[in-house]
Amino acid sequence: MKKSLEIVCGTLAGLALLAIMLLTFLDVSGRKLLSQSITGSLELTELLMVVVIFGALPLVSLKGEHVVFDSLDAILPNWFQRVQRALVDIVCAALLLGLAYLMWNTGADFAVTGETTAQLKIAKSPFIQGMGLLCGLTALVHLVKAFWPTEDDASEGGTL
Q: How far apart are alpha carbons 111 and 128 in whole angstroms?
């Protein structure tokens, strides 16, 4: 299951990032060589950034690569650190589930009203609901880490 998550989310975020790079290259090249930019390139970049960020979020949580403050870890006992990590994961899961719910409902509202981007008229609802689904998936990752921790969870790769 972990490998599937890494493949799906990694591919999603990676392809979106590749698309951003290609779009930027073609847009800048077109401006410099042909004096013509790609219509709606800013909108496309914004939508693709949503895919990159929310596609990578479950992977960041899975690998424990969030920014952490671990100054007291040297003096806190291991059992306390395990309890602390579990509580943080539970709080993160609850907040992400709430955010997923709000995003899903907002996307549904946008689908009903037909909300689109300003220039290219791309529907916003699939992106917002996708953000909700990926937040929900990230919440599940945090719940799994809270209730079924593994050895690699004990040494989170966070940065101070």
A: 10
Q: How far apart are CA 158 and CA 151, in angstroms?
A: 15
Per-residue pLDDT band at 121 (split at 50, 70, 90): very high
pTM: 0.88
Residue type, 82: R
* Gap between the terminal Cα atoms of the chain: 30
Distance, in Å, from the CA atom of 13 to the CA atom of 50, rounded to the nearest integer, reads 9
On whether the CB atoms of residues 103 and 132 are closer than 8 A, the answer is yes
Question: Cα–Cα distance between 153 and 2 in angstroms, integer?
Answer: 13
Q: Is 40 left (phi over 0), alpha (psi -120 to 50) or beta?
A: left
